[in-house]
């Protein structure tokens, strides 16, 4: 399915009202819900873990796309499977055994994603493409919403060529807005994560605002 999908990141939602925030973005046409898990170690910020993700699951009717910015990953894979993640993405930089990690994610019944920091080349996933359902290209250094977009057009083009006919999504994460999103779609991306551009104004769920912003992207 190469249709462009929008995956709002609830990192920019009201943390005291996730249920309402998730309903609002899905009512307004979100294709997936992107959940940013941070451990204060792999990235310099801390969000939530498996019990919170399990609580989100009760509200997500579309696809729950869980982006792990944690190290290590392997000890937590089963917990995220039980929490109800549909897609579980691990960073290639988070440990020495990404190949094993992707096998374990699929083994636990989820789709497996691999994320690349801005400094990591496309070629790093060459031997992983048959083990992965999604390559997440970070267009910011992970850890925070609302950062400035770092252009990764050449990396996305190269990945699209490497992927060929395989059913592998290319997801872009960071700094997506109505200007940057079309550049990434043209380069070959099909899933666009957007935090601050969707949850404009932050803390209050305002469906008419989400809707306008999702459609703009
Ligand atoms: C960054 C997260 C992103 C973040 C994107 O570490 O992985 O998903 O929420 O936020 P924006 O769209 O504001 O750059
Ligand atoms: Zn993310």
From TrEMBL:
Binds 1 divalent metal cation per subunit. Its cofactor is a divalent metal cation; Co(2+); Zn(2+); Mn(2+). One of its GO terms (cellular component) is cytoplasm. Keywords: Carbohydrate metabolism, Cobalt, Isomerase, Manganese, Metal-binding, Zinc. Gene3D superfamilies: Aldolase class I. Substrate binds at residues 9, 67, 143-146, 173-175, 195-196. The active site is at residues 36, 173. GO terms for molecular function: D-ribulose-phosphate 3-epimerase activity; metal ion binding. InterPro entries: Aldolase_TIM, Ribul_P_3_epim, Ribul_P_3_epim-like, RibuloseP-bd_barrel. Its EC number is 5.1.3.1. One of its GO terms (biological process) is pentose-phosphate shunt. It catalyses: D-ribulose 5-phosphate = D-xylulose 5-phosphate. A divalent metal cation binds at residues 34, 36, 67, 173. It is an enzyme of class 5 (isomerase). Pathway: Carbohydrate degradation. NCBIfam families: PRK05581.1-4, rpe. Catalyzes the reversible epimerization of D-ribulose 5-phosphate to D-xylulose 5-phosphate. Belongs to the ribulose-phosphate 3-epimerase family. This is Ribulose-phosphate 3-epimerase. It comes from Fuscovulum blasticum DSM 2131. The lineage of its organism: Bacteria, Pseudomonadati, Pseudomonadota, Alphaproteobacteria, Rhodobacterales.
């Amino acid at each position: 399915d190469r249709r462009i999908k929008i995956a709002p990141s609830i990192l920019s939602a009201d943390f005291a009202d996730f249920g309402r925030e998730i309903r609002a973005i899905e009512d307004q046409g979100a294709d997936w819900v992107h959940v940013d898990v941070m451990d204060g170690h792999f990235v310099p910020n801390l969000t939530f873990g498996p019990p919170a993700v399990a609580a989100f699951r009760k509200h997500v009717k579309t696809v729950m796309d869980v982006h792990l910015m944690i190290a290590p990953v392997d000890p937590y894979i089963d917990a995220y499977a039980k929490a109800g993640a549909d897609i579980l993405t691990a960073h290639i930089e988070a440990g020495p055994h990404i190949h094993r990690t992707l096998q374990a994610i699929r083994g636990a019944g989820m789709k497996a994603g691999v994320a690349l920091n801005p400094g990591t080349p496309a070629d790093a996933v060459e031997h992983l493409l048959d083990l992965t359902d999604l390559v997440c290209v970070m267009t910011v250094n992970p850890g925070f919403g609302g950062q400035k977009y770092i252009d990764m057009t050449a990396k996305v083009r190269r990945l699209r060529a490497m992927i060929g006919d395989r059913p592998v999504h290319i997801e872009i994460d960071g700094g997506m807005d109505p200007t940057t999103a079309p550049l990434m779609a043209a380069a070959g991306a099909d899933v666009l994560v957007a935090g601050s551009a969707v949850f404009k104004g932050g803390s209050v769920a305002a469906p008419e605002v989400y809707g306008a912003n999702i459609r703009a992207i």
